[in-house]
Amino acid sequence: MAEQTTLANLGAAMGMAPAAAGSAAAVEPAKPKLDAQGRAYATGRRKNAIARVWLKRGKGKITVNGKAIEAYFARPVLRMLVQQPMNAVSRLSEMDIDCTVVGGGLSGQAGAVRHGIARALCNFEPGLRGTLKAGAFLTRDSRAVERKKYGRAKARRRFQFSKR
Q: Which end of the chain, C or N, has fewer beta carbons within 10 A?
């Protein structure tokens, strides 16, 4: 007890404000960010693709650019990639997702939609952030195609060497 009072006195002497008891518990939880229709919005990015994602309560319907996910992402791997954040937090059949995606190819667009869904889930239910962060769904995958350099056939490939 004597140590605590001397530390408090030392802190006061240095001009530091005393810490409130239980200050860690005083932090209020984050509030959901919803629009007038009760939807959460987020933007997802991958390569050159940008996805705008709106998430609301529903029956699990996912539409991409006005089409069902099965019609837009025909490959099962891409559909699985898009649904990963929803499966991680067990909300696949509880939320309707509407997204528009532009730029890039199908693989980049699927990654952008996945990133946008994860961010929208955080805006809809801030308590899910820890689970999504642990699954690395909130991290923007910054890998992109390397540019072609002059004097090279491609980004790193050299032209064929000819001795004669």
A: C
pLDDT tens-place string over residues 35-57: 999 999 999 999 999 999 999 99
How many Å apart are CA 153 and CA 46, to the nearest integer? 26
DSSP string, the chain: -HHHHHHHHHHHHTTPPPPPTTTTTTPPPPPP---TTS-EEEEEEETTEEEEEEEEESSS-EEETTEEHHHHS-SHHHHHHHHHHHHHTT-TTTEEEEEEEESS-HHHHHHHHHHHHHHHHHHH-GGGHHHHHHTT-SS-----PPPPPTTSSSSSPPPPP---
Spatial distance between the Cα atoms of 8 and 5, rounded to a whole number of angstroms:
5
Average pLDDT over residues 101-127: 95
CA distance 29 to 18: 23
Q: In what order do the strands lie in the sheet with 49-57?
A: 40-46, 49-57, 95-102, 62-64, 67-68
For 55, the token pair is: 């998430």
